[in-house]
């Protein structure tokens, strides 16, 4: 930054040719530390919240959805500024000059040497970054997601409803822990699932005559999903082959049953693939890719100016870019009314407007 300011004629004119040195910025970073930069970023997030940018109105979502901010999480590789030449220790593990870096475990499409850090980010669905944590590049996303959600409690005035994650997070303990420990409904893109006998391939329970039932709603307090047959057999050709007591008038919805979350959070709730909220939020996966496309583009530009070593210094570097990204979103909204750089919300106003 010191170099750029020295080359800026306008800045030199305004400051009477007095430019801060590189050491000035370095001293500021040391004094603030990671906690100081986090506090700066929190102030910008607060501004974005007051403008209604964290929880924009999305008309396509169910009106009875859980109220709160929709989160997205993902990670991106960040190349190291240090040497990529390492040595193996006595245990056969690679050691580098910067002890906080590691092999990513696979080749990377943008870099010849897959050695560096991984930036794990938690953002709102509208693109505003809330938390970024740095780990060595070989750390798995599943190992960090719970810590990310725990750290987001630095915003006690925010209420979170859903978190959208890709297939890399599709594990039973992740589904369970996010809901039970934080009260957030995980919308996780599923890998292949096999349901037991008595269910369709898509997870709908079958009635005693083998017909697929339909959901009647999710009862979150009881941790279960209610299903009913809605007397579908009356419209089926099979109705001539059997007589079902639930067709009678006293059974308004016909036969009803429940599936319980504790039978398997991944398969039975609180947001299974055939539920309405899952179907509505899943297409926003493309928005997530666009969100993190901006993040990754920003990260790669960041790598051009990343000369820092050590997990704390690189974390500060990442938070600086989160601050700038948050500023950009706020500036665009104030100047143009654009709510999000990653969602097509033209014509919609934030809820707090």
Category from helices, strands and their pairing: alpha+beta
Task: Tell how many strands the DSSP assignment holds.
Answer: 11
Which range does the strand content fall in?
15-25%
Coarse morphology: elongated
By CATH, the architecture of the largest domain is named 2-Layer Sandwich
Return the string of H and E elements. Answer: HHHEEEEEEHEHEEEEHHHH
Helical fraction equals 25-40%
**CATH class bucket of the largest domain:** Alpha Beta
Which stretches are poorly predicted, pLDDT < 50 over at least 5 residues? 347-353
CATH superfamily of the largest domain: Ribonuclease H-like superfamily/Ribonuclease H
Which key terms come to mind for this protein?
353 residues; three-stranded antiparallel β-sheet; alpha+beta; disordered C terminus; six-stranded mixed β-sheet; Nucleotidyltransferase, domain 5
Question: How would you describe what is shown here?
Answer:
The chain has 353 residues and is α+β, with helices and mostly antiparallel strands. The protein has helices spanning 2-6, 9-14, 22-50, 141-151, 172-182, 265-268, 276-281, 285-304, 311-336; strands at 69-79, 87-88, 94-95, 102-103, 115-124, 129-136, 160-165, 185-188, 214-219, 224-228, 256-260. The protein is elongated, with a radius of gyration of 25 Å. The protein starts with a helix and ends in a 17-residue tail after the last helix. 33% of the residues lie in helices and 17% in strands. The model is unreliable at 347-353 (pLDDT under 50). It has 9 helices and 11 strands. The strands form 3 sheets. Strands 1, 4, 5, 6, 7 and 8 form a 6-stranded mixed sheet that branches. A 3-stranded antiparallel sheet has the order 9-10-11, with no helix packed on it. Strands 2-3 form a two-stranded antiparallel sheet. The chain has 2 domains: 34-190 and 280-336, Ribonuclease H-like superfamily/Ribonuclease H (Nucleotidyltransferase, domain 5, 2-Layer Sandwich), CATH 3.30.420; 194-269, no CATH class. The longest helix is centred in the first third of the chain and has 29 residues, at 22-50. Strand 5 and strand 6 form a beta hairpin.
């Amino acid at each position: 930054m010191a170099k750029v300011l020295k080359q800026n004629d306008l800045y030199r004119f305004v400051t009477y040719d007095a430019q801060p040195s590189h050491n000035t910025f370095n001293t500021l970073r040391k004094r603030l530390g990671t906690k100081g930069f986090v506090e700066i970023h929190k102030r910008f997030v607060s501004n974005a919240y007051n403008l209604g940018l964290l929880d924009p109105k999305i008309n396509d979502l169910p009106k009875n959805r859980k109220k709160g901010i929709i989160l997205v999480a993902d990670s991106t590789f960040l190349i190291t500024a240090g040497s990529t030449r390492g040595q193996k220790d006595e245990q056969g593990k690679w050691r580098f000059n910067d002890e906080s870096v590691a092999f990513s475990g696979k080749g990377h499409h943008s870099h010849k040497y897959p050695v560096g850090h991984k930036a794990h980010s938690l953002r709102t669905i509208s693109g505003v970054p809330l938390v970024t944590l740095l780990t060595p590049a070989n750390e798995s996303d599943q190992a960090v997601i719970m810590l990310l959600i725990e750290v987001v409690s630095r915003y006690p005035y925010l209420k979170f409803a859903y978190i959208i994650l890709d297939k890399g997070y599709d594990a039973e303990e992740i589904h369970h822990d996010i809901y039970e420990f934080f009260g957030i409904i995980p919308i996780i893109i599923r890998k292949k699932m096999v349901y037991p006998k008595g269910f369709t391939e898509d997870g709908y329970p079958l009635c005693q005559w083998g017909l697929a039932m339909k959901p009647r709603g999710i009862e979150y307090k009881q941790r279960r999903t209610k299903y009913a047959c809605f007397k579908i057999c009356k419209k089926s050709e099979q109705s001539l082959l059997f007589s079902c007591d639930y067709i009678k008038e006293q059974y308004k919805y016909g036969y009803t049953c429940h599936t319980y979350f504790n039978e398997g959070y991944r398969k039975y709730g609180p947001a299974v693939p055939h539920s309405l909220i899952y179907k509505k939020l899943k297409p926003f996966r493309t928005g997530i890719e666009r969100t993190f496309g901006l993040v990754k583009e920003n990260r790669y530009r960041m790598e051009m100016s990343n000369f820092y070593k050590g997990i704390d210094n690189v974390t500060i570097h990442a938070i600086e870019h989160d601050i700038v990204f948050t500023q950009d979103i706020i500036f665009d909204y104030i100047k143009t009314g654009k709510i999000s750089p990653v969602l097509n919300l033209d014509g919609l106003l934030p809820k707090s407007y």
